[in-house]
Write a structure and sequence with these properties.
homodimer; 2% strand; globular
Chain lengths: 504, 504
């Protein structure tokens, strides 16, 4: 081995070691966040905020250290087509974003968010926006400061968006939403004209929590969720979180009088978890571990939740089991009736409970509001009003309370501005990817009808999961489907499925 | 304010900030450890080991940074009688210990222990010492290396001991054990001569786990455990752990066919937790937060477990409630019979289930074995044999298996050499402190008979808890009782209590 190669290997090893330390601090902070949301006693709030701020600061300081830059420079000529090259490219991208954020700002953001989150929980519980407003007032200027520090060409929002969906732009999202609106708004109008026939009512009733949990576990085990590398806990706002590819946890909220939240929530979070559990384990403790973007991540959760979990095929296998689990409330409910119930379209207040058709209008609303908050054209004090006005405009409904309106989502309390649109990107990609999977493995739909998901999972593992963050979102979409993000398959899917369901 | 004072204030502030970062890393690592023992899936083992090693290394590096030394030097003339002075003194003590340990060694120890612990769990489950031996073979040389690096006057063991019980020495412990042996061995002989009358049998039966948990919660709530600043979870080997004074958690092991482990285990861990919850909150994120030593800590857990929880007075109030909780198994058990059962003396295999009289012989055995392992006069391969020989010699019994013998304790897998003797220090101090508490607040025993513990708790808060680590163990013992550690009250207590119980 010549001297040149030897030096390059040392550089890479040094870089990997630094990145592993940063990853370990991130994983520790993720565990602190998990614990905060599932088990931490009330008294821990302040200490946890301090602790998470410290870990964020150390991770940031360690990452933006000039030594990281020196190592990245020394490794810059590696081919990004190779794994090492992809690692260097991704690390450089993160490095450039991070070096623009001063440590002081990172720490202030973490602390503000860590205090805001429990305040949001309380605000939502008492439907009192004034408990949350002062926290949002603290978070927004920090977000704006971050956008300025990160830099952007067209709009400060682009700088924030890029943190969740590398390469995405506000202008491009506006075009995407425009296409979706054109297809979805008339569809909703036609469905709404028929009036609500109450078809979703059968999902309400007395559904024992423990039985819900057991059924959910059975389903996600069949999906391929590996319990030796994960677990499920209860929380207010469900999420999936991981500390490396071998400890990927989901959380669920159970409603003993409503089947939907836990049933589809568990499938959804498992979709995220399967992505993380499927990442090449050699990428652990590097910037290549973990999904490549929130949008691609959401394509996985929505695929398992909607394209699998709300499909007729899936329930042709699972409905008898579900009926066996809940003989009383589902006694007189026919399979087809159940299928229509879980796919009922009805404009409603709560995003996470929205049907597939109205869902993206919830996102559009949030996208527009958070863009306005960031650019300062909307004041925090006017947010609840603006929220209600848009709910009226897009969905024709007025939220009954702040708890079920502007306070329903955890995101803003966590400083996740720029995150919401990735939900719609995920919806669009879920169908674009699924079409491709079925094209490559035509046996997938039949498998789903037998409760057999390995063809789908192995295709996802091979084409998406294992790559982690090796490819940027646009690249993976292009690699897998041969073209960029495309709303056509998604709109076609909605029209076919709901056209049939509502005889449009 | 003159310039001199201003500078000193800056120094202290700088020092506090550094120490807060170190404390935050320690708390994060404590949460990783808690999670590892209560909820982490199997797959997380390796990643967690890496993560904990990284956090330990960073905490160590941050603490031993020359800047810490410079700040400590600049603050060296502060009076240790003041709080700031006490903080500087304690930090300097820790600093001197830590600077002697190379980062590389700290990281290797953490990684080895993190891998050894799950191996120990498996070894114990299958009673297979060979699964654990290779891990112990890795841990021991690291411990020896640490002792050499830390330095000592008489024996390498002293260097390790000092980490748990600042100022303690092997030679002094040998003298303490000698005094105890003189009093205890004849007592056991006289009790054993009577033969086992099976008085403890009533504690076995069908004791519903959920009911055990509820009763335990009621008791420790009455003790004064603050659930807003703590929680209880299940684990294999119970422990108390905290992440600052406002998040102090206990863990419990439940046996559905045996009342003792959870009942007294919960009281025990709560004794630890009350100490931590009682530390002055201004000490949070400094080296003064947390109990001053393992021995003083154990004095608190043993006081609540034994002097309160195994007293006749306590059960005069609580036995009717316990009987109400478990009407079936306790139907024909009289209060006095129950009191005799929970204080039955009988040499047995398991330390954590040992009665108050035999307990210290379990410790003596471990103390002698670990001293021999550290000095190298005992090989790992010979440990099971040596364990069994000493069990025979001191307690007259042969362990039925490695699981209930040499593999029963978690400590060695966690690298806690020098920890065991602090259990006996705790037993001795528990009585020395309790006598003092009753002298100062003569209403304490009557309170206990009414299920009223505030007089005891407030005395402990005032005299011991709130000080955290402000005073060294010897100092707090001297301040509270006017003399050094003294085995006489403890032996007197045992003779009185068990003399009556066994009509000696």
């Amino acid at each position: 081995m010549d001297r040149m190669t030897e030096t390059k290997r040392d550089t890479l090893e040094g870089l990997r070691k630094r990145l592993a330390t940063v990853a370990d601090l991130g994983s520790a902070n993720a565990l602190l966040a998990w614990d905060q949301q599932v088990y931490m006693p009330k008294g821990g709030v302040e200490g946890r905020a301090e602790g998470m701020a410290t870990l964020s600061r150390l991770a940031h300081e360690h990452f933006v250290d000039p030594e990281t830059g020196r190592l990245l420079d020394a490794a810059r000529d590696l081919d990004p087509e190779t794994e090492d090259g992809a690692l260097v490219r991704r690390a450089r991208r993160d490095y450039e974003r991070s070096t623009r954020l001063p440590s002081r700002l990172v720490e202030e953001m973490t602390r503000a968010e860590s205090l805001a989150e429990p305040a949001w929980v309380e605000a939502r519980a008492s439907s009192d926006f004034s408990l949350f407003a002062p926290h949002l007032e603290k978070i927004l200027p920090l977000q704006r400061e971050a956008a300025e520090a990160l830099g952007y060409e067209d709009h400060p929002y682009d700088a924030l968006l890029d943190g969740y969906e590398p390469g995405a732009k506000k202008a491009r999202l506006e075009a995407m939403f425009e296409e979706l609106k054109k297809g979805i708004v008339p569809m909703i109008r036609r469905i709404s004209e028929r009036g609500d026939d109450g078809r979703a009512a059968v999902l309400r009733g007395d559904f024992d929590e423990a039985a819900q949990e057991k059924f959910g576990e059975e389903v996600v085990t069949a999906f391929g969720y590996d319990w030796d590398r994960g677990r499920q806990d209860r929380t207010v706002h469900p999420f999936c979180i991981n500390f490396g590819p071998n400890d990927v946890r989901i959380t669920t909220r159970f409603d003993p009088e409503w089947l939907s939240p836990a049933l589809f929530g568990t499938m959804h979070e498992t979709g995220h978890a399967l992505y993380e559990q499927g990442v090449d384990p050699r990428y652990a403790r590097t910037p290549l571990s973990g999904g490549t973007s929130m949008g691609v991540h959401e394509s996985q959760s929505r695929m398992w939740e909607n394209l699998v979990g709300r499909s007729r095929g899936f329930w042709s296998h699972y409905y008898p089991k579900l009926q066996g689990t809940f003989p009383e409330p589902l006694r007189d409910v026919e399979p087809e009736q159940f299928y229509r119930a879980i796919n009922a379209v009805s404009p409603s207040e709560i995003r996470v409970e929205a049907d597939e058709v109205t869902y993206n209008l919830h996102i559009l609303l949030r996208f527009e509001l958070e863009v306005a908050l960031i650019e300062g054209s909307l004041a925090v004090a006017d947010l609840p009003e603006a929220w209600n006005a848009k709910m009226e405009e897009y969905l024709g409904i007025t939220p009954g309370s702040y708890a079920t309106g502007v306070l329903q989502d955890v995101h803003w309390s966590s400083g996740l501005f720029g995150y919401f649109p990735t939900y719609t990107i995920g919806n669009v990609l879920s169908v674009q990817f699924f079409e491709e999977a079925v094209k490559a493995r035509p046996e997938i739909p039949e498998g789903i009808q037998r409760g057999e998901f390995s063809a789908l999972l192995s295709w996802l593992r091979e084409n998406i999961h294992r790559h982690g963050s090796r490819y940027l979102p646009d690249e993976i979409v292009e690699r897998v489907t041969g073209r960029p993000l495309d709303t056509a398959p998604y709109l076609r899917y909605l029209e076919t499925k709901f056209g049939e369901l509502y005889e449009l």
